[in-house]
Amino acid sequence: MKTTEPLDYHGKSSPGWGARLALQIRFDRRFLPPVLITLILLLAHLSFGILESYEKTLLAVGASFAAEIVLSLSILGRWPHLSSAYISGISVGILLRSPFFWPYALCALIAITSKYALRIRDRHIWNPSNFGVSAMFFLAPFAAVPLSVQWGNEIWPMIVIWIVGSITIWRLKRFHICAVYVLGFFFFALIRSWITGDPFLVEVAPITGPMYQLFIFFMITDPKTTVRSKRAQMAVAFLVAFAEFFFRLAQTVSAPFYALFLVGPAAMLYEIYRSPPGSAGDATHPTSPN
Known about the structure:
Elements lengths: L16 H11 L4 H17 L5 H23 L6 H13 E2 L4 H16 L1 E2 L2 E2 L3 H12 L5 E2 L9 H16 L3 H22 L3 H5 L5 H10 L10 H20 L5 H20 L16
Antiparallel strand pairs: 1-4, 2-3
């Protein structure tokens, strides 16, 4: 007896559940950032042991998952896509340095909660990871400090990450944001070297560290917390580098996080309030905090 595939309402045979799942995974671009951040984690840790411990990182990821699931089910009434929570948890695990366990869980909870609590016209205006780590660094400097490891003389991990990261961000159509920020960082590094008298390479060195790879590929490119137009995105990226210039002159270790914390939401608020409700300035998916 010959078997046939079930027909859809157009009269065409529809693929089986396995084929549908494969197509969904293949074309769901939300899986690309988690793959990239996992690559950064593996290369950075295997090269320099950047993690405080596996347990603390898993705690951050677990707290992110738990907060995302509970808040999404209780507020939106649906199961969330956990890619955003995974990125937030891994980011917290990589970026935080603390002798305690509780900052990792607390930072992850703050990051995820900010997506649901700090919203205007159904858009959250802070990148969750950036909000969480900035809050921890500012409010609890006695318990948590940022990662400050560089790649050192091992340049190959950075090359691999930049190649894979650039391809990924290009496919997500966010590469222009990274490029403008990096060029701005180099430009202001040159100015800082003139002001401080430090060698240019010393001022540029921080951008080669794992911390900046997360910042460049994930925080400033977050589709949900960046303005809509390409020109405005490039302007905001340059302004983030500009604000960071002053924080670095003040020798603030958390300079990029504080710069984005101030500039990103200001740009978002400007865009939201200059656009009438229901226009393109509002969220494309107003019920999705991811």
